[in-house]
Structures are given as C-alpha cells and as structure tokens.
Amino acid sequence: MKADVLIIGAGIAGSALAYHLSDEGLHVVLLDKDYPGLGASGRSSGLLTVQHWNSLDLALSQASLRIYDNLVQEGNGGARRVGFLRVTSREEDVPRMKERAAMYRKEGLEAEFLEGRALTSGFPAISASDLVAGIFTPEDGYVDAYDYTSTLAAAAKKGGVVMTMGTRVKGIHTRSSVVEGVDTSGGRLSAEVVVVAAGAWSASLLTDEGVFLPLKPYRTQALVTAPIEGLPDLPMFHELPGGFYFRPDQDGLLLGDGTEQREADPRNYNTQADFALYSDIAAWISMRMPILKDLKFARGWAGLCVATPDRFPLVGPIEEVEGLYVLAGFNGLGVMRSPPLARSLSETLLGRKPSFNLASLHPGRFDQNVEFPIREGFTLV
C-alpha cells in the first residue's frame, strides 16, 4: 500500500511529525534504521528554556513546553520546571544580559536580571564569587528526551502510524523529479510524500538526488553523576564563557558541554565521552559547587547535533523534487525547536495554515556549496 507520507527518522523531530499527522485519516509510515530515540535525540540533555538570542526561538520554546505538558495524557510526566539560571563572569556580557531579560519580560515572561549576591541567593550551594551577572527564568524546565521521543512514537502508532523500525534507507526513489518512495534494506516503499528527518544523516540521503543541504554534524558530550546524597534543590544552570551546564537528573546531575566545533562523520564518531571531559567538568563543578568536590560519575556519552549557516533549521519542501521535504538542522536545539516546527510542517502537509510561518526556514534559502563555521545555537548572541 502506497503511503501518503513516509517519514525517514524516528528521532524527536520525525516522531513529533508522525504524532501530529496521526488520527488524520492518512497512511503514514515512520521509518528508522534503529528505534525511536536511540540516535541523537536520546542523547540530548533535554533543556527547555526561553533564554534565546532571537524571537522565533523564544516563541518555539514556549510552544514546546506546552506540547510536552500536553503529552501527560499519553503517559508522560510533563516537563520538570525547575527554572534556568544563566550566569557570566565577563563584564562585557552584562549589557546584553540586561537587554535579553528586558526582551523576555516584554514578551510577558518572568525573567529576573541578577547581580552580586542576588545571583545565587536562592541556591546557596552555588559559589558566585567570580560571577558578575545572570538571568533567572523560573518557568523553564527539562525533559527526558529519550522518554519523550518514545512517547511521541507510541502515541503516533496508537493514532494509526505504521512503524517500520530496524530498516535502513538506501536511497530516495524519484522519477522525473517527482518522489515515488524510498529504497530500503527491506525493499522499496512507495509514498506520495517523503520527509527527511534523519538528523546527521539527512544531507547524505539527498546527495544522490542532486540536492545540496548545508548541514554539518558536530559532536556534543554529556555526563551523568552517581546519586548524590543530600543534593539541594537546584535549577538548570549554564555558565558563560566556558559553556558548562548542569541540570538535575533523578538523584544526581547531568552535566555538559564538551561541544566540538568541527564537522563530524555520522558513520564514524566516538559515542563515548572523552576522558578529558570528566576531569574538566569535575574541576569546574567542584569550584562552582564546593559541596560536590568528591563527585562520582556514573556514565557519559556523545551524540551528534547538526549546524546550518544561520543556526536556524531547514523545514519545508525541496524545490528540486516534488513531494520531498526536510525537517532537520536544529543546531543543538532539537528538543526545544522540533515539536512546534513538526506540528507546523504537518499542518502544511494537510493543507492548513501552519502555527509557525515556515518561509524563513525554507531549505533552499542558501547558495549552493555555501561555506560556514559551526556555531552553537545555545547562546545569548
């Protein structure tokens, strides 16, 4: 049976798209070489914050929080809203932090610009002697990205989406610049529409069709501690300029950053955290929270994020091939960006007005063979 929509990739973006297309009377297929959440999505730290450098991400993060909370009815616990504290030790960051806090408040959000002793007055375990300023947004939170990806995929299956897992895509099948389906390790699957939501693999899937997508995979890392006895209540925390962060994780902490600003090969990269990261984070956290000077780690890992030239994702139709779409390039912000953008793409495919205008995210907005550096999306600028 020919699918109306075939989605390649069961990460958080592809699973969210399948979820939003379910119960719509369409024959939808979600396909992945592994299983939902076993790729980059399941290796995400799951941070959800409104502290962004642009108005689009500010709106997307608010929409994502609502979507995650609405998934409670699907058996998930909702976002854990512990607040987010971003701090800096650089005087030159202070004016921009003031501007950002004012921008968030103008949008009706609770955001507090902090200086001096006020920086960590609510969290006395955090040492702030060298910090000069920060922003605290109390409604921010985090999710277990693997859990939510699995929840989205299960809800999509419940709504009628056909799950085709453990199946590798060999190529996209077209005829006269019109998509006809995909060739897989299990044979050819026919489809009216194919959506590539394969993260770091998205660009390579399209090269045989002569389609250039400016997507560069890059490696990020995270560590999780063993349970910490007597751990106080803490917010999510992000420090500039180093980029280290932590968030609560059950009875311990999840910590990062370990981001490598160079292109990685999705076919061959180290999925384990570097040994040096353990010592770097241990040194940082013992300085920032002296009560954790004897911190023990339980595990660590690495995953791939995908950069674009302007740090915004590619969402929409591929002009060269009728019926071919892409949903990729989230620049490390897939948990925050993908649920509402997947919903907007589903609305587009259904012939409805999208919740978010996707015109500025069109995949064809860049010149062929554009060169660009890898820059993180999770910053103030």
Question: How would you explain this protein's 3D organization?
Answer:
There is one protein chain. The protein is 23% helix and 26% strand. The protein has helices spanning 12-21, 55-70, 94-106, 145-158, 202-207, 275-288, 334-349, and strands at 3-8, 28-31, 47-48, 84-88, 112-115, 133-137, 141-142, 162-164, 169-175, 178-184, 187-196, 216-225, 236-240, 245-249, 252-256, 297-307, 314-317, 324-328. The strands form 3 sheets. Strands 1, 2, 8, 9, 10, 11, 17 and 18 form an 8-stranded mixed beta sheet that branches. The protein has an 8-stranded mixed beta sheet with strand order 5-6-4-13-14-15-12-16, with helices on both faces. A two-stranded antiparallel ribbon has the order 3-7. The model has no long low-confidence stretch (mean pLDDT 93).
- Extract low-pLDDT stretches: none
| Succession of helices and strands | EHEEHEHEEEHEEEEHEEEEHEEEH
CATH topology of the largest domain: FAD/NAD(P)-binding domain
Task: Tell me the number of helical segments per DSSP (H or I, 4 or more residues long).
Answer: 7
CATH domain class name of the largest domain? Alpha Beta
* CATH homologous superfamily grouping of the largest domain: FAD/NAD(P)-binding domain
| Overall pLDDT confidence | 93
Tertiary shape = globular
Which radius of gyration do the C-alpha atoms yield?
A: 21 Å
Structure class = alpha/beta
How much of the residues is beta strand, in percent? 25-35%
Give the number of domains.
Answer: 2
What's the architecture of the largest domain in CATH terms? 3-Layer(bba) Sandwich
